[in-house]
Each structure stands twice: as structure tokens, then as C-alpha cells.
Design brief:
This protein has about 475 residues and is mainly α. It contains 18 helices and no strands. Helix 5 packs antiparallel against helix 18. It is globular and about 80 Å long.
């Protein structure tokens, strides 16, 4: 692919992705408003947003914009239930439009993130296969998959944190890849795209420079941004590091790293951890002043855990139980009343969930299987997407990308390549949501990883066949 062709392809992809997302934003906004105005009962309908979480983000964005107490829900007055990442992105809309901005403005903000994400998919693909002409073709195919993926398009027009989270997750994965290369935890791209599938590299041929302080700052800053947007990503960086190190040592034919490298890695890890604390400190200090407890993320884990592990759990989210627990905690405090109410309620919910799970191990395993299926089912299990057209479109777009992406990850792993590391985010997401509630909504950010793996698999397969035909 020539340089001019590559540029033209990306101009087309970014323009098409922007137009498609804009059309979807206007259509979806009009549809939700018409349903709300007619008072028609719709599954998951919640005012002008459709999804229940959106209302809390909206209220917290208004609170940040006008320096009001950071809380939502007039009855419960949650103060530490949501991290401030997405509300901070919504706050400028209130500065521009006043107390009640049009919801369409938030959807258009999501469209901007969506178009950026398409481009970032291409950037990550190019970085993964740097030094090869075929990287341009891989990047274009991956970008096309991301540009026209119905779930990614729809996600970008929802007033939810997933789209900006994907932006920072892609940047984080790009940084992780570059740092991992410097520590020789991932091999050179040539092992993915060579024509010797059984190559067994002992070291990375194209040695890169040592990790720098800037790398540590960038890594911690991007990881912190993902935590502010989605607290469930708090352990993602640790999960990636352990996975990379485990596979690095599992390959017996590779030479073990020298002591200075191990020492450098440990110092780098400590530096990143300390920077995490530094970047999270404004939120931690605020929470400590409010509750007297060190809370790095939020007090949502108890409710989320009970939502996924309880006598009434089905794998889907249903927070109707919160009101009963709220009243029970008011009437019969589970701990010292001087302890902040949200802390006590969170602990009460968490204890109830874990107690039930320990007493019902078989039911817990059954729920895990149900959640796994809900997360990766070709046909959506949500009532909101129960219409035949939605189900057909989503199933037909998801199934080939999912299967070919898995093939790409396996092919990369067999070749001792590096592209397989894109499967770590889907693996982390799966581990998380077989415990908590599950939905296709939570797999959508993972589809960007699958898009790159699909492109890699198709191009490497084509190259292999070309090599065989010439030999």
C-alpha cells in the first residue's frame, strides 16, 4: 500500500465513521425523545437518556460545572458512588449551555471520541507491526472494522463512560506495548509477520532504549484516567504486567532476564504505583475528608457485587434491592453510626454477597456461566435489544469479528509474536464480569482489540498463502 493510498484510505474511513456516528446520534436522540414524550413503556428506558446510569453522570456533571456538592439522587444522596472521570467530561457542556444542556450535545461529544478511537485503532495496529509495509494494510482493515462496527457506533452516541474509556484504554495499551518491548516482555513484530510459524526467538532482535521517567508518568497517567472513567479498570495494569511476566518466564527456551533488568523492572513498577497514588490523590483526599476512609475508586463495589451474587441475581443488572438495604441500614446500622453511611452500606452489601456466594457455590458457578454467555453471546440477551433487526445486525457483525479475532490471537501466540497481548483486555473483562453483572455493553470496548487481531489474521494468512504459492 503506497503512502498516498494509505492517506486516502484513512481520510475516507474517518469521514465515513464521523458521518455514520453523526447520523446515528441524531436518529437515536430523536427516537429516545419521542419515546419519552409519548410516555411509552420501553425496556431500559430512562427519560431522555435511555440508560439509567446516564442520569447520574448528568447530575454529577452539573454538580462539577457549578461547584455544587458532588452527589446525586435526592433520596440516597450518593457522594462516593461514582468516580468523577465522565462527569468531568460532561461539565463543559453545562458551562456552554447552562443548567440544562441538550442531551444531543453529550451524544456529539461521544461521536468525537468515537472518531478518535477509530484513528487510535490504526495507530495501535501500526505500532504493533512497525517496520513492515503490511502494517498499513493491517491498520486500514482494523480501522474499517472499528469504523463500521454497529456496537462501537452505537456506544459512541450513548451518554455513558464507555466511549471515552475506550480512548484512554487504547492509549494505555499503546504505552504498555512500548514499555513491554523495552523490558523485552514482548518480542519484535517480525515474529508475528514472518513466514516461519515455529520460530523460537530467545531475545528481541530490535532492542529498544531503556524505560524512562516519562514512560512511567505516561503509563500511570493513562491508567489513572481509565480508573476515573471506570473504576473496574483499577487492576488492569497489574493484570497485564502479571500476564506478560508469567508468559515471559513460561517460555523455557527464552533466556531469563539479567538481574539489572529485573531490578529496573521492579523500580519502574514501584514508580508507576507511586505515581498512581499521586494522580488519584485529589479524589482520595476528598473521600477521606468525607468518610474518614481511604477510598481510591468508589463505593459502588458492594452494590455491584450483590447485583451479581445474590438470591435474586440473574446475570443482568437490577438494582431494585438497594432501597431495601438502604432502609435496613437506616433502621439497624451494621456498624458504628459515626462511620459514613455509604461506607456502612457498601460493606453491608459486600458482606451479604460474599456470604451468599460461599453458601451457594454451585449457584455461583452457574451464574458465572450465565454471565459469560451474556457477555459474549452472538445474540444479545438484553430486552433493550430484543427487536429482530437489532439481534440480526449485532449477531452478524459480532460473530465473524469475534471468531477471527480469536484466530488472530492464537496465531500470534503460536508464532511467539506480540499481537496476542491485545487479548488481555477481553480476558480481564471476562474475569471481571463473570463475578459482577454482565451485558454486551461491557464487551464493546474489547471489540477494538478484536478488530486489530482480525486484520492481523487476515493479512498474515494472505501472506502465508502468497509465500507458499511462490515456493
Amino acid at each position: 500500500m503506497t503512502k498516498n493510498t494509505y492517506k486516502i484510505a484513512w481520510i475516507f474511513l474517518l469521514t465515513a465513521s464521523a458521518l455514520l456516528r453523526l447520523a446515528t446520534a441524531f436518529y437515536w436522540n430523536s427516537y429516545v425523545e419521542s419515546v419519552a414524550s409519548q410516555n411509552v413503556s420501553e425496556p431500559a428506558q430512562d427519560g431522555p437518556f435511555f440508560f439509567g446510569d446516564s442520569d447520574s453522570y448528568w447530575k454529577l456533571g452539573r454538580a462539577l460545572a457549578f461547584a455544587r456538592p458532588y452527589q446525586f439522587d435526592e433520596i440516597h444522596r450518593w457522594q462516593v458512588f461514582r468516580t468523577p472521570g465522565y462527569p468531568a467530561l460532561l461539565a463543559p457542556l453545562f458551562w456552554i449551555f447552562g443548567e440544562n444542556p441538550p442531551v444531543l450535545a453529550a451524544r456529539l461529544l461521544g461521536v468525537c471520541f468515537g472518531v478518535v478511537n477509530v484513528y487510535l485503532v490504526g495507530i495501535l495496529a501500526c505500532a504493533l507491526f512497525s517496520g513492515f509495509e503490511s502494517r498499513k494494510l493491517i491498520a486500514v482493515i482494523a480501522g474499517a472494522c472499528a469504523a463500521f462496527d454497529p456496537t462501537l457506533v452505537f456506544q459512541s452516541v450513548c451518554v455513558l463512560s464507555e466511549e471515552p474509556f475506550l480512548t484512554f484504554a487504547l492509549l494505555l495499551n499503546l504505552t504498555i506495548y512500548r514499555v513491554a518491548r523495552k523490558f523485552n516482555l514482548l518480542p519484535s513484530p517480525e515474529y508475528d509477520l514472518n513466514e516461519t510459524p515455529n520460530a523460537q526467538p530467545s531475545v528481541c532482535r530490535n532492542a529498544e532504549s531503556k524505560p524512562t521517567v516519562a514512560d512511567a508518568i505516561r503509563l500511570a497517567a493513562l491508567s489513572t484516567a481509565t480508573i476515573y472513567l471506570r473504576p473496574s479498570s483499577a487492576y488492569y495494569l497489574l493484570f497485564v504486567a502479571l500476564t506478560l511476566v508469567a508468559l515471559r518466564f513460561a517460555r523455557k527456551r527464552r533466556a531469563l532476564p539479567a538481574r539489572p533488568v529485573v531490578k529496573r523492572f521492579l523500580l519502574f513498577a514501584v514508580a508507576v504505583a507511586l505515581l498512581h497514588v499521586l494522580f488519584l490523590s485529589p479524589w482520595i483526599i476528598r473521600n477521606y475528608a468525607l468518610t474518614g476512609r481511604i477510598i481510591a475508586t468508589s463505593l459502588q463495589s458492594g452494590a455491584s457485587l450483590y447485583d451479581g451474587l445474590s438470591p435474586t441475581a440473574t446475570g443482568a443488572s437490577d438494582m431494585t434491592f438497594v432501597d431495601q438495604f438502604f432502609q435496613d441500614e437506616l433502621n439497624s446500622p451494621s456498624d458504628d453510626e459515626n462511620i459514613h453511611f455509604e461506607v456502612r452500606l457498601d460493606e453491608r452489601l459486600k458482606t451479604a454477597a460474599l456470604t451468599w456466594a460461599k453458601a451457594h457455590p454451585l449457584q455461583t458457578l452457574k451464574l458465572a456461566a450465565i454471565k459469560f454467555y451474556r457477555l459474549w453471546a452472538p445474540i444479545p440477551r438484553e430486552k433493550a435489544f430484543s427487536r429482530p433487526l437489532f439481534m440480526i445486525v449485532l449477531a452478524c457483525s459480532f460473530t465473524p469479528v469475534f471468531l477471527l479475532g480469536l484466530c488472530g490471537a492464537i496465531r500470534s501466540l503460536n508464532r511467539n509474536g506480540a499481537a496476542w497481548f491485545l487479548a488481555i483486555l477481553p480476558l480481564y473483562t471476562t474475569c471481571l464480569h463473570v463475578i459482577f453483572v454482565s451485558s454486551i455493553r461491557y464487551r464493546v470496548p474489547c471489540m477494538a482489540s478484536f478488530d486489530i487481531l482480525v486484520a492481523f489474521f487476515l493479512v498474515s494468512l494472505w501472506q502465508s498463502r502468497e509465500a507458499k504459492s511462490k515456493s
